[in-house]
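Exercise 4. Each item below gives a protein and its sequence. For each, produce the structure-token representation.

Item: Glutamate-1-semialdehyde 2,1-aminomutase (Arsenicicoccus piscis).
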Amino acid sequence: MGQLAPTGPVYQAGTLSGNPVATAAGLATLERCTPEVYATLDRVAHTIADGVATELDRAGVPHCIQWAGPMFSVFFREGPVLSYADAQGQDTAAFTAFFQAMLAQGVHLPPSAFECWFVSAAHDDRAVDHVLAALPAAVRAITDSSARVRA
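Answer:
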């Protein structure tokens, strides 16, 4: 254990990080995940990601959405992201404008352009509608900031 930070050279972090209470809560959650819960996660994730894609397409903002189960990532670039170099090639300024506009409307996204979006069974129709309603203004924030950069 002496090799682990903060005293050692090995940095270790994780969602549960071996915390027994967090691990028990995670296990209890997984034990209650039914096929219906997974179907809800898929529906919610696709509804949100489709809404993001629709608004970005409408504004002509380059983007790519990639999936791993009900988790997805929105990259502000053309074409798929197959490597870290591809991810670095995205428009992080567009992400920042989008993120800040969503946050201002009460939608909390992952704070980095390199992270994936997670949904949960707690995202009911009202929460999804709130996210979808926030998208047009967030996309306008991208196009407005891009216009300022070009001017």
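Check: The longest strand covers residues 64-68.
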